[in-house]
């Protein structure tokens, strides 16, 4: 049977691993948020260009307008995916934080 000291050492190691993983998840969330901001800006630019093209331009520009709209739709889908992924990572970080708090409470 393990000694109390060995158990505490194992718990400390696990706590450090959890804290490192939480920090990693927080960094990933920040990265995803930055990607979302970039995609939103790109969507805005594409929408503006698309609106300009649709305002009475010749037939040759209608294809470009459709391409831009497709790009907008793809980027919006990507924003949704990144948002969902960020929420999942945030929930995982919260779960780990809850485990960390439980371990600390049990230790006290």
TrEMBL record:
Q: Which organism is it from?
A: Diversispora epigaea
Provide the coiled-coil residue spans.
8-92
Q: In which domain of life is the source organism classified? A: Eukaryota
Protein name per UniProt: Uncharacterized protein
Q: Which UniProt keywords apply?
A: Coiled coil
């Amino acid at each position: 049977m393990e000694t109390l000291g060995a158990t505490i050492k194992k718990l400390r190691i696990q706590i450090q691993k959890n804290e490192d993983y939480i920090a990693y998840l927080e960094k990933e969330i920040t990265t995803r948020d930055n990607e979302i901001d970039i995609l939103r800006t790109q969507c805005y630019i594409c929408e503006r260009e698309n609106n300009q093209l649709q305002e009475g331009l010749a037939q040759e520009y209608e294809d470009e307008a459709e391409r831009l709209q497709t790009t907008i739709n793809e980027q919006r889908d990507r924003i949704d995916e990144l948002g969902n992924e960020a929420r999942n990572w945030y929930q995982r970080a919260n779960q780990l934080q809850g485990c960390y708090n439980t371990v600390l409470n049990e230790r006290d």
